[in-house]
Specification:
Blueprint (H helix, E strand, L loop, with lengths): L17 E5 L2 E4 L2 E4 L1 E5 L2 E6 L9 E4 L4 E4 L1 E6 L4 E2 L2 E2 L4 H10 L2 E8 L7 H12 L6 E7 L5 H14 L3 E5 L8 H14 L2 E5 L3 H13 L6 H6 L2 H18 L3 E3 L5 H12 L4 E6 H5 L10 H6 L12 H10 L5 E3 L7 H4 L19 H11 L5 H15 L17 E11 L18 E11 L2 E5 L2 E2 L16 H4 L4 H4 L5 E2 L3 H18 L58
Parallel strand pairs: 1-6, 2-7, 8-11, 11-12, 12-13, 13-14, 14-15, 15-16, 16-17
Antiparallel strand pairs: 1-4, 2-3, 4-5, 5-22, 7-18, 9-10, 18-19, 19-20, 20-21
Bound molecules: N-(aminocarbonyl)-beta-alanine (URP) and zinc ion.
The site of N-(aminocarbonyl)-beta-alanine has 9 residues, from loops.
Length: about 575
Protein backbone atom coordinates (compact mmCIF):
# COMPACT_ATOMS: atom_id res chain seq x y z
CA UNK A 1 0.00 0.00 0.00
CA UNK A 2 1.20 3.49 -0.72
CA UNK A 3 1.74 6.01 2.01
CA UNK A 4 1.54 9.78 1.62
CA UNK A 5 4.67 11.76 0.88
CA UNK A 6 6.01 13.58 3.94
CA UNK A 7 5.74 17.34 3.67
CA UNK A 8 9.08 19.09 3.66
CA UNK A 9 9.30 22.47 5.41
CA UNK A 10 9.27 25.34 2.93
CA UNK A 11 12.75 26.59 3.88
CA UNK A 12 14.25 23.24 2.95
CA UNK A 13 12.32 22.68 -0.24
CA UNK A 14 14.89 23.69 -2.79
CA UNK A 15 18.33 23.49 -1.22
CA UNK A 16 18.00 19.73 -0.83
CA UNK A 17 17.81 19.38 -4.60
CA UNK A 18 20.82 21.57 -5.28
CA UNK A 19 24.31 20.47 -6.04
CA UNK A 20 27.39 22.17 -7.39
CA UNK A 21 30.36 20.25 -8.79
CA UNK A 22 33.54 22.30 -8.78
CA UNK A 23 37.00 22.12 -10.32
CA UNK A 24 36.51 19.03 -12.50
CA UNK A 25 37.23 18.44 -16.16
CA UNK A 26 33.93 18.12 -18.01
CA UNK A 27 34.26 15.55 -20.78
CA UNK A 28 31.78 15.58 -23.62
CA UNK A 29 32.13 13.73 -26.92
CA UNK A 30 33.20 17.01 -28.53
CA UNK A 31 35.80 18.23 -26.06
CA UNK A 32 36.97 18.80 -22.51
CA UNK A 33 36.38 22.00 -20.53
CA UNK A 34 37.15 23.10 -17.00
CA UNK A 35 33.98 24.53 -15.50
CA UNK A 36 31.66 24.21 -12.53
CA UNK A 37 28.24 22.63 -12.90
CA UNK A 38 25.19 23.69 -10.96
CA UNK A 39 22.34 21.18 -10.67
CA UNK A 40 18.86 21.89 -9.41
CA UNK A 41 15.78 19.68 -9.34
CA UNK A 42 17.30 16.97 -11.44
CA UNK A 43 18.80 18.85 -14.32
CA UNK A 44 21.83 20.97 -15.17
CA UNK A 45 20.98 24.59 -14.71
CA UNK A 46 24.30 26.41 -15.01
CA UNK A 47 27.77 25.63 -16.30
CA UNK A 48 30.70 28.04 -16.07
CA UNK A 49 33.06 29.82 -13.72
CA UNK A 50 32.01 32.14 -10.88
CA UNK A 51 28.46 30.80 -10.87
CA UNK A 52 25.92 32.35 -8.55
CA UNK A 53 24.89 29.50 -6.31
CA UNK A 54 22.06 29.66 -3.74
CA UNK A 55 23.00 29.14 -0.10
CA UNK A 56 22.72 25.64 1.34
CA UNK A 57 23.79 23.97 -1.89
CA UNK A 58 25.92 20.86 -1.50
CA UNK A 59 29.39 21.14 -3.08
CA UNK A 60 31.35 18.23 -4.53
CA UNK A 61 35.01 18.94 -5.21
CA UNK A 62 36.02 17.15 -8.41
CA UNK A 63 39.62 18.38 -8.57
CA UNK A 64 41.74 15.92 -10.53
CA UNK A 65 38.67 14.00 -11.70
CA UNK A 66 36.74 13.77 -14.93
CA UNK A 67 33.05 14.68 -15.03
CA UNK A 68 31.34 12.43 -17.57
CA UNK A 69 27.78 12.09 -18.86
CA UNK A 70 26.28 9.07 -17.10
CA UNK A 71 26.73 5.88 -19.06
CA UNK A 72 23.89 4.58 -21.23
CA UNK A 73 23.78 0.82 -21.66
CA UNK A 74 21.56 0.19 -24.68
CA UNK A 75 21.52 -3.60 -24.32
CA UNK A 76 20.31 -5.39 -21.19
CA UNK A 77 18.05 -8.37 -20.53
CA UNK A 78 16.79 -8.12 -16.97
CA UNK A 79 14.54 -10.93 -15.68
CA UNK A 80 14.44 -12.36 -19.21
CA UNK A 81 12.87 -15.80 -19.75
CA UNK A 82 15.18 -17.47 -22.21
CA UNK A 83 16.36 -21.00 -23.04
CA UNK A 84 14.38 -22.53 -20.19
CA UNK A 85 15.72 -20.12 -17.54
CA UNK A 86 15.15 -16.63 -16.27
CA UNK A 87 18.07 -14.20 -16.04
CA UNK A 88 18.83 -13.53 -12.38
CA UNK A 89 19.43 -9.78 -12.44
CA UNK A 90 15.99 -8.21 -12.18
CA UNK A 91 15.15 -4.57 -12.90
CA UNK A 92 16.03 -3.61 -9.33
CA UNK A 93 19.31 -5.41 -8.89
CA UNK A 94 20.35 -4.83 -12.50
CA UNK A 95 19.81 -1.07 -12.43
CA UNK A 96 21.36 -0.81 -8.98
CA UNK A 97 24.48 -2.55 -10.31
CA UNK A 98 24.40 -0.27 -13.36
CA UNK A 99 24.56 2.77 -11.09
CA UNK A 100 27.38 1.29 -9.04
CA UNK A 101 29.42 1.19 -12.23
CA UNK A 102 28.52 4.65 -13.56
CA UNK A 103 25.69 3.73 -15.92
CA UNK A 104 22.69 6.00 -15.31
CA UNK A 105 20.32 4.71 -17.98
CA UNK A 106 19.64 1.33 -19.54
CA UNK A 107 17.58 0.22 -22.51
CA UNK A 108 16.18 -3.27 -22.04
CA UNK A 109 14.60 -5.59 -24.60
CA UNK A 110 10.91 -6.33 -24.13
CA UNK A 111 10.50 -9.90 -25.38
CA UNK A 112 6.98 -11.30 -25.93
CA UNK A 113 6.13 -14.61 -24.34
CA UNK A 114 4.64 -17.29 -26.65
CA UNK A 115 1.21 -16.10 -27.76
CA UNK A 116 1.58 -12.65 -26.21
CA UNK A 117 1.00 -9.61 -28.42
CA UNK A 118 3.77 -7.04 -28.57
CA UNK A 119 1.40 -4.49 -27.07
CA UNK A 120 0.63 -6.68 -24.05
CA UNK A 121 4.32 -7.44 -23.79
CA UNK A 122 5.02 -3.71 -23.53
CA UNK A 123 2.40 -3.22 -20.81
CA UNK A 124 3.74 -6.18 -18.87
CA UNK A 125 7.33 -4.98 -19.04
CA UNK A 126 6.26 -1.53 -17.79
CA UNK A 127 4.36 -3.10 -14.95
CA UNK A 128 7.33 -5.24 -13.99
CA UNK A 129 10.02 -2.60 -14.35
CA UNK A 130 8.50 0.75 -13.34
CA UNK A 131 8.53 0.21 -9.59
CA UNK A 132 11.89 -1.54 -9.55
CA UNK A 133 14.24 0.59 -11.62
CA UNK A 134 16.83 2.67 -9.77
CA UNK A 135 17.74 4.61 -12.93
CA UNK A 136 15.87 5.79 -16.00
CA UNK A 137 15.12 3.21 -18.66
CA UNK A 138 13.61 2.77 -22.10
CA UNK A 139 12.61 -0.33 -24.02
CA UNK A 140 13.36 -1.84 -27.41
CA UNK A 141 10.65 -4.23 -28.62
CA UNK A 142 11.63 -7.68 -29.92
CA UNK A 143 9.72 -9.22 -32.82
CA UNK A 144 10.00 -13.00 -32.47
CA UNK A 145 7.44 -13.52 -35.25
CA UNK A 146 5.95 -11.49 -38.07
CA UNK A 147 2.26 -10.87 -38.83
CA UNK A 148 -0.15 -8.13 -39.82
CA UNK A 149 -1.03 -7.72 -36.13
CA UNK A 150 2.64 -7.16 -35.27
CA UNK A 151 2.84 -4.57 -38.02
CA UNK A 152 -0.23 -2.73 -36.68
CA UNK A 153 0.96 -2.84 -33.09
CA UNK A 154 4.41 -1.52 -34.02
CA UNK A 155 2.64 1.64 -35.09
CA UNK A 156 0.75 1.91 -31.80
CA UNK A 157 3.95 1.39 -29.83
CA UNK A 158 5.68 4.13 -31.78
CA UNK A 159 2.82 6.60 -31.73
CA UNK A 160 1.48 6.10 -28.22
CA UNK A 161 4.10 4.40 -26.10
CA UNK A 162 7.49 5.90 -26.81
CA UNK A 163 9.08 2.91 -28.54
CA UNK A 164 11.39 3.72 -31.45
CA UNK A 165 13.39 0.54 -31.98
CA UNK A 166 12.55 -3.06 -32.87
CA UNK A 167 14.84 -6.07 -32.71
CA UNK A 168 14.67 -8.95 -35.13
CA UNK A 169 16.56 -12.23 -34.78
CA UNK A 170 18.32 -14.07 -37.60
CA UNK A 171 19.11 -16.99 -35.27
CA UNK A 172 17.27 -19.07 -32.63
CA UNK A 173 13.98 -20.86 -33.27
CA UNK A 174 12.17 -17.51 -33.28
CA UNK A 175 14.20 -16.04 -36.15
CA UNK A 176 12.55 -14.23 -39.04
CA UNK A 177 13.20 -15.28 -42.63
CA UNK A 178 14.51 -12.81 -45.21
CA UNK A 179 11.07 -11.85 -46.50
CA UNK A 180 9.86 -11.20 -42.96
CA UNK A 181 12.95 -9.15 -42.18
CA UNK A 182 12.27 -7.16 -45.33
CA UNK A 183 8.71 -6.40 -44.20
CA UNK A 184 9.77 -5.58 -40.65
CA UNK A 185 12.53 -3.22 -41.83
CA UNK A 186 10.09 -1.60 -44.24
CA UNK A 187 7.65 -0.94 -41.41
CA UNK A 188 10.46 0.46 -39.21
CA UNK A 189 11.44 2.83 -41.98
CA UNK A 190 7.86 3.97 -42.47
CA UNK A 191 7.42 4.63 -38.75
CA UNK A 192 10.79 6.34 -38.27
CA UNK A 193 12.07 3.58 -36.01
CA UNK A 194 15.49 1.95 -35.80
CA UNK A 195 15.70 -1.70 -36.90
CA UNK A 196 18.01 -3.86 -34.81
CA UNK A 197 19.26 -7.32 -35.68
CA UNK A 198 20.84 -10.21 -33.90
CA UNK A 199 22.92 -11.26 -36.90
CA UNK A 200 23.85 -14.94 -37.07
CA UNK A 201 22.70 -17.50 -39.64
CA UNK A 202 20.34 -19.65 -37.55
CA UNK A 203 19.86 -22.37 -40.19
CA UNK A 204 23.59 -23.00 -40.49
CA UNK A 205 23.97 -23.01 -36.70
CA UNK A 206 21.21 -25.65 -36.35
CA UNK A 207 22.94 -27.91 -38.88
CA UNK A 208 26.34 -27.41 -37.24
CA UNK A 209 24.92 -28.26 -33.81
CA UNK A 210 23.47 -31.51 -35.18
CA UNK A 211 26.78 -32.42 -36.80
CA UNK A 212 28.90 -31.65 -33.73
CA UNK A 213 26.63 -33.50 -31.30
CA UNK A 214 26.60 -36.52 -33.63
CA UNK A 215 30.41 -36.49 -33.49
CA UNK A 216 30.27 -36.54 -29.70
CA UNK A 217 31.29 -32.89 -29.20
CA UNK A 218 28.87 -32.01 -26.40
CA UNK A 219 30.95 -29.68 -24.16
CA UNK A 220 31.08 -25.85 -24.17
CA UNK A 221 33.84 -25.92 -26.82
CA UNK A 222 31.08 -26.87 -29.30
CA UNK A 223 29.48 -23.46 -28.93
CA UNK A 224 31.93 -21.42 -30.99
CA UNK A 225 32.53 -24.35 -33.37
CA UNK A 226 28.84 -24.23 -34.24
CA UNK A 227 28.83 -20.45 -34.76
CA UNK A 228 32.09 -19.48 -36.54
CA UNK A 229 32.86 -15.93 -37.65
CA UNK A 230 31.49 -16.35 -41.18
CA UNK A 231 28.12 -17.40 -39.76
CA UNK A 232 28.00 -13.99 -38.08
CA UNK A 233 29.43 -11.92 -40.95
CA UNK A 234 27.15 -13.55 -43.54
CA UNK A 235 24.10 -12.52 -41.51
CA UNK A 236 25.43 -8.99 -40.98
CA UNK A 237 25.92 -8.64 -44.73
CA UNK A 238 22.44 -10.04 -45.46
CA UNK A 239 20.84 -7.66 -42.96
CA UNK A 240 22.66 -4.71 -44.59
CA UNK A 241 21.49 -5.80 -48.04
CA UNK A 242 17.87 -6.09 -46.88
CA UNK A 243 17.98 -2.76 -45.03
CA UNK A 244 19.36 -1.06 -48.13
CA UNK A 245 16.41 -2.24 -50.25
CA UNK A 246 13.94 -0.36 -48.06
CA UNK A 247 16.28 2.44 -46.97
CA UNK A 248 15.96 1.50 -43.32
CA UNK A 249 18.58 2.50 -40.74
CA UNK A 250 20.04 -0.62 -39.20
CA UNK A 251 21.67 -1.21 -35.80
CA UNK A 252 23.59 -4.48 -35.49
CA UNK A 253 23.63 -5.57 -31.87
CA UNK A 254 26.65 -7.36 -30.39
CA UNK A 255 29.23 -7.35 -33.18
CA UNK A 256 31.64 -9.99 -31.91
CA UNK A 257 34.07 -10.72 -34.74
CA UNK A 258 36.57 -8.94 -36.95
CA UNK A 259 34.83 -10.33 -40.04
CA UNK A 260 31.46 -8.92 -38.98
CA UNK A 261 32.98 -5.50 -38.21
CA UNK A 262 34.69 -5.49 -41.60
CA UNK A 263 31.34 -6.09 -43.29
CA UNK A 264 29.93 -3.08 -41.42
CA UNK A 265 32.94 -1.00 -42.41
CA UNK A 266 32.39 -1.79 -46.07
CA UNK A 267 28.63 -1.18 -45.85
CA UNK A 268 29.22 2.24 -44.28
CA UNK A 269 31.70 3.11 -47.02
CA UNK A 270 28.95 2.20 -49.50
CA UNK A 271 26.59 4.63 -47.75
CA UNK A 272 24.43 1.96 -46.19
CA UNK A 273 23.16 3.40 -42.96
CA UNK A 274 24.31 0.86 -40.44
CA UNK A 275 25.50 1.27 -36.86
CA UNK A 276 27.45 -1.35 -34.94
CA UNK A 277 27.41 -2.19 -31.24
CA UNK A 278 30.33 -3.93 -29.57
CA UNK A 279 29.97 -5.66 -26.22
CA UNK A 280 32.20 -5.00 -23.25
CA UNK A 281 32.72 -8.78 -23.03
CA UNK A 282 34.06 -8.81 -26.59
CA UNK A 283 36.51 -5.97 -25.86
CA UNK A 284 38.07 -7.74 -22.94
CA UNK A 285 37.85 -11.47 -23.43
CA UNK A 286 38.74 -13.94 -26.13
CA UNK A 287 37.50 -17.50 -26.51
CA UNK A 288 40.28 -19.10 -24.49
CA UNK A 289 37.73 -20.04 -21.80
CA UNK A 290 36.64 -22.88 -24.12
CA UNK A 291 39.71 -24.93 -23.36
CA UNK A 292 39.32 -24.47 -19.59
CA UNK A 293 38.70 -27.77 -17.86
CA UNK A 294 35.95 -26.45 -15.57
CA UNK A 295 32.46 -26.65 -17.10
CA UNK A 296 31.27 -23.82 -14.85
CA UNK A 297 34.02 -21.51 -16.02
CA UNK A 298 33.56 -22.30 -19.73
CA UNK A 299 29.76 -22.18 -19.58
CA UNK A 300 29.94 -18.91 -17.66
CA UNK A 301 31.47 -17.32 -20.76
CA UNK A 302 28.89 -18.57 -23.26
CA UNK A 303 26.93 -15.97 -25.15
CA UNK A 304 25.91 -15.53 -28.77
CA UNK A 305 27.58 -14.61 -31.03
CA UNK A 306 30.45 -16.21 -29.10
CA UNK A 307 33.66 -14.74 -27.75
CA UNK A 308 36.13 -15.43 -30.52
CA UNK A 309 39.09 -17.78 -30.19
CA UNK A 310 41.20 -15.40 -32.31
CA UNK A 311 43.07 -13.58 -29.50
CA UNK A 312 43.51 -10.41 -31.59
CA UNK A 313 39.72 -9.83 -31.63
CA UNK A 314 39.30 -7.62 -28.52
CA UNK A 315 41.89 -5.06 -29.63
CA UNK A 316 40.60 -5.15 -33.20
CA UNK A 317 37.06 -4.38 -31.99
CA UNK A 318 38.38 -1.49 -29.90
CA UNK A 319 40.12 -0.11 -32.96
CA UNK A 320 36.87 -0.39 -34.93
CA UNK A 321 35.25 1.69 -32.15
CA UNK A 322 38.08 4.21 -32.30
CA UNK A 323 37.60 4.57 -36.07
CA UNK A 324 33.79 4.92 -35.86
CA UNK A 325 33.17 1.69 -37.76
CA UNK A 326 31.39 0.69 -34.54
CA UNK A 327 29.66 3.40 -32.50
CA UNK A 328 28.39 1.94 -29.24
CA UNK A 329 29.42 -0.41 -26.42
CA UNK A 330 26.62 -2.30 -24.70
CA UNK A 331 26.77 -5.04 -22.10
CA UNK A 332 24.10 -7.53 -23.30
CA UNK A 333 23.79 -8.23 -19.58
CA UNK A 334 21.85 -11.51 -19.46
CA UNK A 335 23.00 -13.33 -16.38
CA UNK A 336 22.47 -16.96 -15.44
CA UNK A 337 23.85 -18.60 -12.31
CA UNK A 338 26.17 -21.60 -12.47
CA UNK A 339 23.26 -23.90 -11.61
CA UNK A 340 21.24 -22.57 -14.56
CA UNK A 341 24.19 -22.97 -16.93
CA UNK A 342 24.22 -26.68 -15.96
CA UNK A 343 21.13 -27.15 -18.13
CA UNK A 344 23.69 -27.64 -20.90
CA UNK A 345 26.03 -29.98 -19.02
CA UNK A 346 25.59 -32.73 -21.64
CA UNK A 347 24.73 -30.56 -24.63
CA UNK A 348 26.41 -27.20 -25.26
CA UNK A 349 23.42 -25.96 -27.27
CA UNK A 350 21.30 -25.98 -24.12
CA UNK A 351 23.59 -23.76 -22.03
CA UNK A 352 21.57 -20.57 -21.41
CA UNK A 353 23.32 -17.87 -23.42
CA UNK A 354 24.42 -14.72 -21.66
CA UNK A 355 27.02 -12.99 -19.50
CA UNK A 356 27.30 -10.04 -17.09
CA UNK A 357 28.55 -6.54 -17.93
CA UNK A 358 26.05 -3.88 -16.85
CA UNK A 359 28.07 -2.99 -13.75
CA UNK A 360 31.58 -3.27 -15.17
CA UNK A 361 31.06 -1.87 -18.69
CA UNK A 362 32.35 1.63 -17.94
CA UNK A 363 35.41 0.49 -15.97
CA UNK A 364 36.40 -2.20 -18.45
CA UNK A 365 36.03 0.09 -21.48
CA UNK A 366 38.08 2.74 -19.67
CA UNK A 367 40.75 0.16 -18.79
CA UNK A 368 41.00 -1.44 -22.23
CA UNK A 369 40.35 1.77 -24.14
CA UNK A 370 41.56 4.90 -22.36
CA UNK A 371 44.05 3.46 -19.88
CA UNK A 372 45.55 1.31 -22.65
CA UNK A 373 45.87 4.38 -24.91
CA UNK A 374 43.56 3.19 -27.71
CA UNK A 375 40.94 5.93 -27.28
CA UNK A 376 40.79 9.27 -25.48
CA UNK A 377 38.20 10.28 -22.85
CA UNK A 378 36.00 12.06 -25.41
CA UNK A 379 35.67 8.92 -27.53
CA UNK A 380 35.03 6.99 -24.31
CA UNK A 381 32.05 9.26 -23.67
CA UNK A 382 30.82 8.86 -27.24
CA UNK A 383 30.83 5.07 -27.21
CA UNK A 384 29.54 4.55 -23.67
CA UNK A 385 26.85 7.26 -23.66
CA UNK A 386 26.41 9.92 -26.35
CA UNK A 387 26.10 7.74 -29.44
CA UNK A 388 23.45 5.54 -27.85
CA UNK A 389 21.58 8.70 -26.81
CA UNK A 390 21.74 10.00 -30.38
CA UNK A 391 20.73 6.78 -32.10
CA UNK A 392 17.75 6.18 -29.80
CA UNK A 393 16.70 9.84 -29.68
CA UNK A 394 17.56 10.60 -26.09
CA UNK A 395 20.15 13.25 -26.97
CA UNK A 396 20.78 15.88 -25.66
CA UNK A 397 18.57 15.22 -22.67
CA UNK A 398 20.87 12.26 -22.03
CA UNK A 399 24.44 11.61 -23.15
CA UNK A 400 25.67 15.19 -22.85
CA UNK A 401 26.67 17.60 -20.10
CA UNK A 402 25.00 20.80 -21.22
CA UNK A 403 22.55 23.36 -19.96
CA UNK A 404 19.16 21.72 -19.57
CA UNK A 405 20.37 18.13 -19.83
CA UNK A 406 19.28 15.67 -17.15
CA UNK A 407 21.73 15.66 -14.27
CA UNK A 408 22.98 12.12 -15.00
CA UNK A 409 26.66 12.52 -14.23
CA UNK A 410 29.64 10.46 -13.19
CA UNK A 411 32.65 11.84 -11.36
CA UNK A 412 35.40 9.55 -12.51
CA UNK A 413 38.66 9.13 -10.67
CA UNK A 414 41.18 7.99 -13.29
CA UNK A 415 43.87 7.25 -10.72
CA UNK A 416 41.86 5.03 -8.37
CA UNK A 417 41.80 1.30 -9.07
CA UNK A 418 39.53 -1.59 -8.26
CA UNK A 419 39.64 -5.32 -8.90
CA UNK A 420 36.51 -6.87 -10.33
CA UNK A 421 35.08 -9.87 -8.53
CA UNK A 422 31.79 -11.72 -8.18
CA UNK A 423 32.42 -11.56 -4.42
CA UNK A 424 32.09 -7.79 -4.38
CA UNK A 425 29.90 -6.92 -7.37
CA UNK A 426 26.31 -5.72 -6.90
CA UNK A 427 24.74 -8.06 -9.41
CA UNK A 428 22.64 -11.09 -8.47
CA UNK A 429 24.70 -13.50 -10.57
CA UNK A 430 27.29 -15.75 -8.90
CA UNK A 431 29.92 -15.43 -11.65
CA UNK A 432 31.78 -12.55 -13.26
CA UNK A 433 33.53 -12.96 -16.61
CA UNK A 434 35.94 -10.13 -15.70
CA UNK A 435 36.97 -11.78 -12.42
CA UNK A 436 40.36 -10.53 -11.24
CA UNK A 437 40.69 -7.71 -13.79
CA UNK A 438 42.28 -4.63 -12.25
CA UNK A 439 40.66 -1.46 -13.58
CA UNK A 440 42.19 2.01 -13.37
CA UNK A 441 39.27 4.40 -13.24
CA UNK A 442 36.53 4.29 -10.65
CA UNK A 443 33.18 6.11 -10.45
CA UNK A 444 33.55 8.00 -7.18
CA UNK A 445 30.24 9.83 -7.42
CA UNK A 446 27.29 8.89 -9.58
CA UNK A 447 24.45 11.35 -9.90
CA UNK A 448 21.17 10.27 -11.40
CA UNK A 449 18.46 12.85 -12.03
CA UNK A 450 20.28 15.15 -9.62
CA UNK A 451 20.48 12.63 -6.80
CA UNK A 452 23.85 11.39 -5.56
CA UNK A 453 23.50 7.60 -5.66
CA UNK A 454 27.17 6.72 -5.44
CA UNK A 455 28.68 8.99 -2.82
CA UNK A 456 32.46 8.71 -2.36
CA UNK A 457 32.14 5.16 -3.63
CA UNK A 458 29.18 4.27 -1.39
CA UNK A 459 26.11 2.99 -3.26
CA UNK A 460 22.76 4.50 -2.18
CA UNK A 461 20.47 3.47 -5.02
CA UNK A 462 16.74 3.91 -4.55
CA UNK A 463 14.27 1.36 -5.85
CA UNK A 464 11.70 2.98 -8.14
CA UNK A 465 13.60 6.25 -8.54
CA UNK A 466 14.08 5.68 -12.27
CA UNK A 467 11.50 6.65 -14.85
CA UNK A 468 10.43 5.15 -18.14
CA UNK A 469 11.73 7.49 -20.82
CA UNK A 470 9.73 7.58 -24.02
CA UNK A 471 11.83 7.62 -27.16
CA UNK A 472 10.40 9.57 -30.07
CA UNK A 473 10.52 8.27 -33.64
CA UNK A 474 12.68 9.75 -36.37
CA UNK A 475 15.85 10.30 -34.31
CA UNK A 476 17.60 13.15 -36.15
CA UNK A 477 21.01 11.45 -35.82
CA UNK A 478 19.65 8.53 -37.82
CA UNK A 479 17.02 10.10 -40.08
CA UNK A 480 18.29 13.66 -40.48
CA UNK A 481 21.95 13.92 -39.39
CA UNK A 482 22.32 17.52 -40.55
CA UNK A 483 19.95 18.58 -37.75
CA UNK A 484 21.99 17.05 -34.90
CA UNK A 485 24.31 20.03 -34.56
CA UNK A 486 21.28 22.29 -33.96
CA UNK A 487 20.25 20.13 -31.01
CA UNK A 488 23.48 20.66 -29.13
CA UNK A 489 22.75 22.49 -25.87
CA UNK A 490 24.83 25.37 -24.57
CA UNK A 491 27.88 24.21 -22.65
CA UNK A 492 28.15 27.42 -20.75
CA UNK A 493 25.67 29.79 -19.17
CA UNK A 494 22.48 29.71 -17.22
CA UNK A 495 18.93 28.88 -18.13
CA UNK A 496 16.09 29.95 -15.90
CA UNK A 497 13.17 29.18 -18.12
CA UNK A 498 13.79 25.45 -17.91
CA UNK A 499 11.84 25.30 -14.68
CA UNK A 500 8.76 26.47 -16.57
CA UNK A 501 9.40 24.05 -19.36
CA UNK A 502 9.56 21.18 -16.88
CA UNK A 503 6.21 22.28 -15.50
CA UNK A 504 4.70 22.15 -18.98
CA UNK A 505 6.24 18.75 -19.55
CA UNK A 506 4.79 17.51 -16.27
CA UNK A 507 1.29 18.73 -17.02
CA UNK A 508 1.29 17.29 -20.51
CA UNK A 509 2.64 13.95 -19.37
CA UNK A 510 0.14 13.64 -16.53
CA UNK A 511 -2.69 14.47 -18.93
CA UNK A 512 -1.45 11.97 -21.41
CA UNK A 513 -0.94 9.14 -18.96
CA UNK A 514 -4.37 9.63 -17.46
CA UNK A 515 -5.95 9.33 -20.87
CA UNK A 516 -4.85 5.69 -20.86
CA UNK A 517 -7.77 3.70 -19.47
CA UNK A 518 -6.93 1.62 -16.42
CA UNK A 519 -8.25 -1.88 -16.86
CA UNK A 520 -9.97 -3.78 -14.04
CA UNK A 521 -7.50 -5.50 -11.72
CA UNK A 522 -8.17 -8.89 -13.22
CA UNK A 523 -6.96 -7.70 -16.60
CA UNK A 524 -3.37 -7.52 -17.73
CA UNK A 525 -2.48 -4.00 -16.72
CA UNK A 526 -1.72 -0.98 -18.74
CA UNK A 527 0.94 1.24 -17.18
CA UNK A 528 -0.93 2.55 -14.19
CA UNK A 529 -2.76 5.84 -14.52
CA UNK A 530 -0.92 8.08 -12.12
CA UNK A 531 -2.65 10.22 -9.55
CA UNK A 532 -1.86 13.92 -9.48
CA UNK A 533 1.41 14.84 -7.83
CA UNK A 534 0.84 15.61 -4.15
CA UNK A 535 2.12 18.75 -2.55
CA UNK A 536 5.46 18.76 -0.81
CA UNK A 537 8.85 17.80 -2.16
CA UNK A 538 11.02 14.75 -1.85
CA UNK A 539 14.43 15.09 -0.35
CA UNK A 540 16.26 13.33 -3.13
CA UNK A 541 19.59 13.45 -1.30
CA UNK A 542 18.16 11.47 1.63
CA UNK A 543 19.34 7.87 1.40
CA UNK A 544 16.39 6.60 3.40
CA UNK A 545 13.94 7.96 0.88
CA UNK A 546 12.30 5.17 -1.10
CA UNK A 547 9.88 5.73 -3.90
CA UNK A 548 8.73 2.14 -3.79
CA UNK A 549 7.13 2.89 -0.43
CA UNK A 550 5.86 6.17 -1.72
CA UNK A 551 2.85 7.14 -3.73
CA UNK A 552 3.48 5.92 -7.22
CA UNK A 553 2.87 9.42 -8.47
CA UNK A 554 6.53 10.01 -9.11
CA UNK A 555 6.61 8.09 -12.37
CA UNK A 556 5.91 10.16 -15.37
CA UNK A 557 6.59 9.61 -18.97
CA UNK A 558 8.75 12.06 -20.80
CA UNK A 559 6.89 13.94 -23.46
CA UNK A 560 8.92 16.08 -25.75
CA UNK A 561 7.64 19.60 -26.08
CA UNK A 562 8.73 20.38 -29.57
CA UNK A 563 8.46 24.15 -29.49
CA UNK A 564 8.67 25.18 -25.89
CA UNK A 565 8.94 28.73 -24.73
CA UNK A 566 12.43 29.78 -23.81
CA UNK A 567 14.31 29.72 -27.05
CA UNK A 568 16.90 27.52 -28.62
CA UNK A 569 19.00 26.82 -25.57
CA UNK A 570 16.23 24.64 -24.23
CA UNK A 571 14.93 23.55 -27.60
CA UNK A 572 14.97 19.85 -26.95
CA UNK A 573 12.25 19.85 -24.36
N1 LIG B 1 23.56 -12.71 -26.31
C1 LIG B 1 23.24 -13.73 -25.56
O1 LIG B 1 23.95 -14.71 -25.62
N2 LIG B 1 22.18 -13.72 -24.73
C2 LIG B 1 21.18 -12.75 -24.66
C3 LIG B 1 20.18 -12.90 -25.74
C4 LIG B 1 20.66 -12.29 -27.02
O2 LIG B 1 20.92 -11.10 -27.06
O3 LIG B 1 20.80 -13.01 -28.00
ZN1 LIG C 1 21.07 -9.43 -26.12
Amino acid sequence: MSTPVKKVPIHLQSSQNRLVIRHGKIVNEDGITEDDIYIEDGFIKQIGRNLIIPGGTRTIDARGKYILPGGIDPHTHFEFEFMGSKSVDDFYQGTKAALAGGTTMIIDFAFPKPGESILDCFYNYRQTADDKVCCDYSLHMCLPHWSEQVKREMEILCKDHGINSFKMFMAYNFMLNDAELYSAFEQCQKLGAVAQVHAENGSIIAKNVERLLAKGIVGPEGHELSRPEEVESEAVNRACVIAKQVDCPLYVVHVMSKQAAEVISLARKNNIQVYGEALVAGLSKDGSHCTHNSFQYSAGHILSPPLRSDPSTPLALLNFLAQDVLQVVGSDNCTFNSKQKELGKDNFSKIPNGVNGVEDRMSVVWEKGVHAGVIDPTRFVAITSTNAAKIFNLYPRKGYIGIGSDADIVIWNPTATRIISAKTHHQAVDFNIFEGLECHGVPEYVIVNGRVVVDEGQLKAVQGFGRFIETAVFPPFVYDPAKVEDLKPQRNGNVDEIQDIREIEKIISEDKICLTPTLPESNIGTPTCKAPRPEGQRNIQDSTFSISEDLDTEHKSCIRVRNPPGGKSSGFW
